[in-house]
Amino acid sequence: xxEDHTEAEAAxxxxxxxxxxxxxxVVADDTALEAVLDxxxxxxxxxxxxxxxxxxFRYLPRAYLIQLRRNGSGTFMIDPTRFDDLTGVGRVxxxxxxxxxxxxxxxxxxAEVGMRPSSLFDTELAARLCGMERVGLAALTERLLGYRxxxxxxxxxxxxxxxxxxxxxxxxxxxxxxxxLRDRLDAELRAQGKRDWAAEEFEALTASRPAxxxxxxxRRTSGIHRVRGARALARVRELWLARDExxxxxxxxxxxxxxxxxxxxxxxxxxxxxxxxxAIPGFQRxxxxxxxxxxxxxxxxxxxxxxxxxxxxxxxxxxxPATHRWASRDPEAAARLKRARHAVLxxxxxxxxxxxxxxxxxxxxxxxxxxxxxxxVDRVREAMAAAGARQWQVSLAATALTEALAD
Length: 407
Prior knowledge:
Blueprint: H1 3-10, E1 14-15, E2 26-27, H2 30-42, E3 44-53, E4 63-71, E5 74-78, H3 87-92, E6 97-100, H4 103-112, E7 119-122, H5 123-129, H6 137-145, E8 147-148, H7 165-176, H8 178-191, H9 195-207, H10 230-250, H11 254-257, H12 260-269, H13 274-278, H14 286-290, H15 292-304, H16 326-329, H17 331-350, H18 355-358, H19 361-369, H20 377-386, H21 391-406
Parallel strand pairs: 1-8, 2-5, 3-6, 6-7
Antiparallel strand pairs: 3-4, 4-5
């Protein structure tokens, strides 16, 4: 850690309770939006960007408030639900670096309204690369800037209208310090010789697109590990699909309809009437009771399904199997994975960063399960790059991984 950072850490943090320019009005009409575009155009330097979603409350993780701050412009908060799109914001910020914290969480909902960065700086990822253990926004501003932020409303239902005044204050403060934080982290990256590494990571984030939907998303139902047999798994699938259809139509998070563990419990018990289903706590909720016919019909479909329509007991895998099965299926691969993980961990400790940021665990698993036919540093480099590793990761880890795989 550089000397100026140490000084910031030594000072007692100051609780930041008010934005320096006050809490701006929420932009909700075209006239106000045009004024924002003019102000952003007149500003200079990078722009701090944040989005508030209603995760856990609404079906889709869309943005319900977008905050922006730029030097010479000020802070703005936009209600994206009041506009067809915000491509105008993206247009005036084209060529400007966006500063986000945990960018991967916000990029999709920003892109949905037409806002896509041409370059970005992710303060959370930068902190990880610098080897900082606590990388939340509040922890970083306290450590590096000497200001403490309260995070009381991070899990709030941001689809609420009107938004409470204290929520808006919280939202404005989320971008208040991002520009200063970016500068401190940028200096630390340079001091550690990692700025080029970060640039590759930021470029990959900028170019990223939403992941393809899972083929069998119902298999991620909490508690499904307790469900045994193809017929019981079919009950999980049918209940999950019935809940998902209802949640989409109501624009509610599926967990607000019926929680996951209740679906697994129903799949195990296989109740055939309302009384049996109501004995499972999760179905006693309002949407559980009101849609009793829906759930019983789903269970009946699973009960009546032909054997060829039942799901596989073993989940479909595009890559290697679950690692806990490696020892029995391929002991040599299990040994390779152990050595490769150890090599990555040693490198990560040497370079002061989490192992998962040095190289994605999925890439390590893929190499250990099926190494290149010709096991050489060049072939491992090629395999890493094909799997999505950045050039700095390839340069840093290819030799150590080759030695671990060949041991």
